[in-house]
C-alpha cells in the first residue's frame, strides 16, 4: 500500500507541474519545469536502480536559479536467490528513497549550459520501515538548448542523508530529462 501511495503522490506532483505549462506566458516567464529520470550509482548493499524527478524552478538572477525537486529513487539489493522463486512473494528485496529538496543552481558559464547545484531537503527512506531524514546535496549538470524554451538536461548529484538510516546513507542519481 505504501508503494501505491508513493507512486500516486509522485504522479500528482508531475501532473501539477505539467499544468504550469498552460499558464499565460507572463506568469511563467521566469518559471521553468523539469522532468527527468535515470539510474542510481550503487550505495551500500544496493546495486543501482532507477530514479524519477519532477522539478519547479525560478530564474532569480541572470546566473542564479532556485529549484524545488520532488523525486523517487528505487534501489535493488544484490541477492544470492536463484530464480524462479521457490515460494510466492519471494524476490529481490528493494528499498525506495523519496524526497523533496530546495536547491540553488549557479551557472558556470554565461550561456547557462554548465551549472552547479546544491541544496537541502527531507528524505523518506522506505525499507521494511519508513524513516524521515534531513539531507544535503551537491552536484553538477549540463543544460543544452534544443529549441527556443526547451533544454535537454543531464545532471549528477550526490545526496547525503543525515543520521543513521536502515537504507542507503547516500545516493547519486544520474538524471536525463527536459527543462521547459
Q: Mean pLDDT, nearest integer?
A: 81
Shape: elongated
Number of helices: 2
**Which range best describes the helical content: under 10%, 10-25%, 25-40%, 40-55%, 55-70% or over 70%?**
10-25%
Strand content: over 45%
Secondary structural class:
mainly beta
Q: Give the terminus-to-terminus CA distance.
A: 33 Å
Tally the beta strands. 8
Low-confidence residue ranges: none
Alpha-carbon Rg, integer: 18 Å
Order of helices and strands: HHEEEEEEEE
Q: Main sheet: which strands, in order across?
A: 1-2-3-4-5-6-7-8
Biggest sheet record = 8 strands, antiparallel, barrel
Descriptive account of the structure:
- The structure is a single chain.
- The chain is mainly β.
- The protein has two helices and eight strands.
- It has helices at 2-19, 25-28, and strands spanning 31-41, 46-61, 64-77, 94-107, 114-126, 130-147, 150-161, 170-179.
- Strands 1-2-3-4-5-6-7-8 form an eight-stranded antiparallel barrel.
- A hairpin with a 6-residue loop joins β4 and β5.
- It is elongated.
